[in-house]
Amino acid sequence: MKNSVEDFLKRHKIDASCIDDDAILNQFLTEMDNGLAGKESSLQMIPTFCGLDSSIKAGDKVIVLDAGGTNFRTCLVTFNDNLEPEISDFKKVGMPGVKETVSAKEFFSTLADNVERLIDKSDKIGFCFSYAAKITEDHDGIPIMFSKEIKAPEVIGKRLGASLLEELASRGHDVSKKSVSVVNDTVATLLATKAKCFDKASSYIGFILGTGTNTAYAENNCNIKKIDAADKNAKQIINVESGNMKIRLGDIDEMFTKSTKDPDLYLFEKAISGAYLGPFSHKVIEVAIKEGVLSASFGEKFAKIPTLSTTYMSNYLEMCHNKDYVLVSLIDNEEDASALYKILDMIIERAAKLTAINLTAAVLKSGEGLLPRYPVIINADGTTFYKTERLEFYTRMYLNEILEKKHKRYVKIVNVPDSPVYGAAIAGCMA
Asked: pTM to 2 decimals?
């Protein structure tokens, strides 16, 4: 059984050892450079016109919108006398476009529905938008594409802040003094890290690994060839849109991505993120059954269950003897139990290695992290990173192997709770 499983994992390039970290890292860095230069690239490398210096004042109030993977959140953030952010009047609803296709009118109407209760509490609006969007110099955002299976094609190309204010104005609200600052959730995560005063850092990275994935870091303006920055010596945050990195792995990966919305887009995201790890595992298990790595009796029972979620596949690794878990309940012999464990564990390890390569690329591009006492602070956010069994463990292991031992760069991973909300509030004060 051991040889059969190992052969299966290597033959289909699921084994983490099949990942050539040097080759993929070089691909990442090349794509990043091309994106910064405005050349053809799978990485958007979106300038944000947002630096690392926050301008918040005690008493500032900001209306915050947080459009995430499956949820849309609204709240009011107030900065107290110590400039600490405090959340109030919080509300969460489903993200428009998750269950069915929505028009632009329906999309912005949903946003306005949830902002109206807050509209008189501040003229500052921070909008955390967790999808690829071009950021304008006046801090509005124009969606480029939707990931995470969101279906709202009419919204592509429309100004988010201006469209929201237009919808609110049509309902009789005075929006003449209101400003909207749009930031990506990963950029917001970076800003929240900086605001929490990790002052012994050489730089900061925002990293999301939840339903989807993305990375943000601070780049020198002189390296951003596609814009004419006023201050070439300053830095600004870059939204990498790392989930869209074009990466080709194994044949099962190709079969899986062909079954997803936009099969040629967000290939990196589909290899590591929460929306896809479970369904991908389901596909791998189906092939393992077909090839006899898992038994026919297991296959008969497996065929009767719904497509796996990332939570369900993680549950098996967490407590592989708990019969209350879906996958455990299908097991009736040790051969299947061990083979299934090895398959799922390797899918997680491979995702972690890819994650570490992604973070290594961002650190190297930042040019920082050379001194161990002044590391690059990575604010890692997302339930997939922290809740998926062994994903954080393997990521740290590969960061040590690839980033620290090979490239002599140093990082510290932190988690600032509610980072997208806090970062959006900080951005709202910058508009």
From this structure: 0.88
